[in-house]
Amino acid sequence: MIKGINHITFSVKDLEEAFDFYKEILELKPIMKSSYSAYFEVGDTWLALMEEAGNKKRNLYNHIAFHLNQEDYYKLKELLVRSKVESWQDDKTEGESFYFCDPSGNKLEIHYNTIDDRIEYGKLNWTGDIKWFR
């Protein structure tokens, strides 16, 4: 069912510093940057950075999202719910995501939308200080 990695999300303490590191040092291609988040292309996957500067416990939002087609997403979500996995967050994104933990507590997500879907949605719906690179 799982087709690959959809995206990886890292919590960062300082978005400006992290953005410069991933862009200038690792030479990743930026997709978007706002006051609290940024996206980069990493091959066929995208990397999301989310600032958690005010939070004393770091890395609360770190997770890996697996990519599925829409039909398989619903099948796997139903199986995960029936298996009584621990959910660590409600869905707040465009499309649909299911956030859950593996038996060791690692944070995972299943998602069927693509970075192109996210960009299209963001350009139509997000406001504020956002810079788009593509």
Structure characterization notes:
With 134 residues, the protein is α+β, with helices and mostly antiparallel strands. Helix content is 26%, strand content 35%. The chain has three helices and nine strands. Strands 6-7-8-5-1-4-3-2-9 form a nine-stranded mixed β-sheet, with helices on both faces. It is globular and about 45 Å long.
Low-confidence stretches: none
Q: Largest beta sheet: what is the strand line-up?
A: 6-7-8-5-1-4-3-2-9
H/E element string?
EHEEEEHEEEHE
Integer count of domains: 1
* Helix proportion: 25-40%
Shape field? globular
Largest sheet: 9 strands, mixed
Q: Structural class of the helices, strands and pairings? A: alpha+beta
CATH superfamily: 2,3-Dihydroxybiphenyl 1,2-Dioxygenase, domain 1
The second-level CATH architecture is Roll
CATH topology: 2,3-Dihydroxybiphenyl 1,2-Dioxygenase, domain 1
Give a quick set of tags describing it:
single chain; alpha+beta; 2,3-Dihydroxybiphenyl 1,2-Dioxygenase, domain 1; 9-stranded mixed β-sheet
Q: Topology, please?
A:
Elements lengths: L3 E9 L2 H11 L3 E5 L3 E6 L2 E7 L11 E5 L2 H13 L4 E3 L7 E5 L5 E5 L3 H11 L5 E2 L2
Parallel strand pairs: 1-4, 5-8
Antiparallel strand pairs: 1-5, 2-3, 2-9, 3-4, 6-7, 7-8
